[in-house]
Specification:
The longest helix is centred in the middle third of the chain and has 42 residues. The protein contains twelve helices and four strands, in the order αβαβααβααβαααααα. α9 packs parallel to α10. The protein is α+β, with helices and mostly antiparallel strands.
């Protein structure tokens, strides 16, 4: 298999990947504690074993652990954000639904692991549409496995993995960057105003339903509000939003961008995890399942968390928009 580093392989006894051999880029992850690097290696090994005989073009680390701003407290903890990039699209959905893989990662890797599965052509298509979260992610990411950069025409064209630029191009590139930043700021501002307003409307609906004692309707509106606050962050930071309605997936994506969002819905305690899971289920069950029931105390807790989410979304997004200049 192709390797991204000449560093010797450091196997862990618990890794259980006898059919794989790869070198791990310890030198590029020097900002991480040794235990985190070992856990990353363990996670990569589990993924390779679980999807065999398929081979990814690349496995990349993005998000807070790549940037160095991860959070780990008694209440919440950042996940390893792993970008599993396949050369062909047909395997993406199959791997994304592979619950045995995610269960194994949850059982065996001490740090939570979030896996985002996409294909080369899909990524290039989104780059072409101006969804800048992909260009930002490629620039911040660190390659953990594979040397599939050749598969990306945009990699060589836009120099995502090559940070050195020709001196003769600097003046033109500076002007181009300023134009892009100006456009990005205008678009991010417009996206923020639209999505933040939508999110807050649903939050107000939830409060009204709660006051009238219609708790199931309040739960649904709260789900919609959280989904749109998350969409606000994704649009401002990335120029796009996921089509998923799964709050856990959206929560992980937003936390990979700004780890402070982890404190909105802490899930270390079983009670907190259960309340968030009930909110997650409310998208369908609060509308279509008569047996669904959300209690007053749960709604009170969730309303307080969504108020915090509103404040944090406003603060983080406004700060980000101000940087686009």
């Amino acid at each position: 298999m192709d390797s991204v580093s000449s560093s010797p392989l450091r196997r862990m006894a618990s890794q259980r990947i006898p059919t794989f051999s790869f070198s791990f880029p310890y030198s590029s992850l020097a900002h991480l504690p040794v235990t985190k690097r070992e856990q990353l290696q363990q996670a990569v090994g589990i993924i390779l074993s679980a999807i065999s005989p398929a081979k990814p073009a690349m496995i990349m680390l993005f998000g807070s652990y790549a940037r160095g701003d991860w959070l780990q407290t008694a209440e919440y903890e950042s996940s390893f954000d792993l970008w599993l990039i396949m050369a062909k699209a047909p395997l993406v959905q199959k791997i994304a639904r592979k619950t045995t893989l995610y269960n194994q990662l949850h059982r065996e890797v001490e740090t939570p692991v979030h896996v985002l599965v996409e294909d080369v052509q899909g990524i290039e298509r989104r780059i072409g549409k101006g969804q800048w979260i992909y260009t930002d992610r490629l620039q911040e990411s660190m390659v953990l496995y594979g040397s599939g950069a050749d598969a990306f025409t945009h990699f060589s064209r836009l120099s995502f993995l090559q940070k050195q630029q020709q001196a003769s191009q600097k003046k033109t590139q500076t002007s181009h960057r300023k134009q892009k930043a100006s456009h990005r700021k205008q678009k991010a501002g417009a996206d923020f105003r639209y999505w933040f307003a939508k999110a807050n409307v649903y939050r107000v609906y939830a409060i009204m339903a709660f006051k009238q004692g219609d708790y199931n309707e309040a739960a649904f509106f709260l789900h919609q509000s959280v989904e749109r606050f998350y969409a606000t962050v994704l649009w401002v930071f990335g120029g796009y939003s996921s089509s998923s309605h799964d709050l856990q997936q959206l929560h992980q994506l937003v936390a990979s961008i700004a780890p402070q969002f982890l404190r909105v819905f802490p899930q270390k305690l079983l009670a907190e995890k259960a309340m968030f899971e009930q909110l997650r289920q409310a998208y369908v069950e609060a509308r279509y399942k008569p047996s669904f029931s959300m209690g007053r105390s749960t709604l009170e807790w969730l309303l307080a968390r969504v108020h915090l989410l509103k404040q944090l979304t406003d603060e983080v997004c406004q700060a980000r928009i101000a940087r686009y200049c």
